[in-house]
Each structure stands twice: as structure tokens, then as C-alpha cells.
Amino acid sequence: MIDLNETIKEKKNFFNRLVFVYLFFGMLFLFFLYRTFSLQVSSFTDYEIASLENKTREILIQPIRGIIYDRKGKIIVNNQPNYNLILKPSQIDNINEHINMIVNFIELSEEDIAYIRENFKRKARLNRELILKKNLSMEEIAKFESRRYKFPATFIDERYSRENIYSEIFSHAVGYVGSIGDDYLEEILIDQNLSLKETIFKYSNGYIVGKTGLENIYDKKLRGNFGKKIYEVDASGKLLNELQEIPAKNGEDLYTSLDIESQKVAFEQLNNRRGAVVAVEIESGAIVTYVSSPSFPINKITNGMSSADFNQLLNDEDKPFF
């Protein structure tokens, strides 16, 4: 005999389970519907930006440092242009053959050749420039230009070096510039809302900052702000088209109260003996002359001095750095 109450109870349980299943799948459907809407509509801009970033690459543009003048507007420190021989590796099939052709009229050191061979494949893969030789002489420039038609993938480009026109006279007052570590460089770039990445250099020595003297005290003013170029890249990171350029803001010029002629007189009178001369303008308190002796060669330190020579200066009993 069938128990009617049991049958009703089973039907009710079945109905409850059925409602639960419908609710579960209904909520699951609504969840997937929400996620689809979120991905395709709400988060479209975020994913579009991320996708764009994967297809583009920023390359920094180094600014040129400001010029330093004396009180009469005469230049003390300038940016001296020099010329580098540069190669486009992605357009070269055989680098050894190319080097052999170049060395017929431009001398390349063993270090130059080793650097070229070591970096050629990576630069070619990423479509980056490769410096064959720095600081070309006018004779080397003339030799290359007369044969330029043979080297469509090679060109000469201008770079700068920091030059103090009166190297030893202003060694302590103006100071010198030098290379910079990655940690400090990151601080500079963060201050400009940028990050450390590949850079188009304007200076042969790469990143430089003021190390001593006015070059250091007014470094932020003198160094300017980096610009950047935005390139389209392929999946391998190879540069394709330039999409945008934000020019670098070159450093501001610095006009000092120093006087070149009085610096010369003081320097000559000290005649490399230990001592110092400071002359102050009474009315304004401005420093007109600031000379310490013995001095040291700023330009050699700035543009490349051997460790042995630098250590010799450091250990000199006359203490030229002080």
C-alpha cells in the first residue's frame, strides 16, 4: 500500500532540489554574463592600454647640459661636439666582412672590434644602433665620407663631450662631471616620472652628472630633463615605426659671478704652489675669484682618465683635490 504522505514528501524534496539546481545554474550564468561584460566593456580600456604597451617601446632621449658663463658672459664650460661612426646591424649580413672593409681606411682597436662582435647579433635582432668608433678625427671623417656610398648601413653622428675651456684654472670652482650609477639615475628618472630604459645618448660618455664644484651644486638645473621616443615593436622587440617623440628639455645655462681674467692672474701668481686666492665683491658679496693650487685637469677626468692617473692625483702629497 502506497503511503500518500511519503509520496507528497518526496515530491516536495524533489521540487526543492530542482529549485536549488535552477538557482545554482542561474547564478552561474549571471556570473559568466557579468565577467563577459566586465572583460569586453568595463575593463576594455585597461586591456587596450596593456595591449598597446606590449606593442610599443619607449626610448629615452638624453638632454644636453647647460653652458656655464663668467660674469661678463664669456664661456667657461661648453659642450664640445665630436663624431662617432655608427652602424645599423639589422642591415648587415656579415659583420666580419664589414669590419674588414672599414679597417682599410679607419683604424679600429682590438677593443673596438671585440665590442662590435660581442654586441652585433643582439643589436641586429632588436634593430638598435651600434657604435663602431668614438671621437673620429677630421681625417677619418673625410675618409669615410668619400666612401660613404659603399656603406649604406653605416653613418657618422654627432655626440658631445663636456669641455672646460680653462681646464685647470676653474678646476675647484666649477668642478667636473662624471658617470652615474644606476641607483642615482633611477632617482633622477623617477623625479621626471620616467624609468630606466634604453637611451639615445647625446654624450659619448653616456649618463653624466656634476661631481664637484658648480657642476655638482647646480646639477639639476644644468642637466635638464629627458625626452623620449615611442616606437612600435614586433613580438621579438624589434623597432618598427616611430609613433611619437617628446623632445628632451636641455639644461639651463648658468651665469656665475666669476671673472676669467682675475682667475688667470690668481692662477699665474700662485704658480702651482700650495695656496688659494678668493676675491669677493664688497657691494654684493659675490665671489669673483676662486682659485686653489695645485690644480688638476678637469677635462681629462671628465672625458676619460685612467685609474692609475686618477689614483696618482689622489695620492699626490700636494693634495690637488683639496
Describe this structure as you would to a colleague:
A hairpin with a 5-residue loop joins strand 9 and strand 10 (239-246). Helix content is 40%, strand content 23%. Mean pLDDT is 82; it is low at 46-52. It contains eleven helices and 13 strands. It folds into three domains: 4-46; 56-255, Penicillin-binding protein 2a (Domain 2) (Alpha-Beta Complex); 260-314, no CATH class. The longest helix is centred in the first third of the chain and has 39 residues, at 4-42. The chain has 322 residues and is of the alpha+beta class. Strands 2, 3, 4, 5 and 11 form a five-stranded mixed sheet that branches. Strands 7-1-9-10 form a four-stranded mixed sheet.
Provide the descriptors you would attach to this structure in a database record.
5-stranded mixed sheet, 4-stranded mixed sheet, 23% strand, 13 strands, antibiotic resistance, 322 residues, beta-lactamase, Penicillin-binding protein 2a (Domain 2), alpha+beta, single chain, PBP_dimer, transmembrane, carboxypeptidase activity
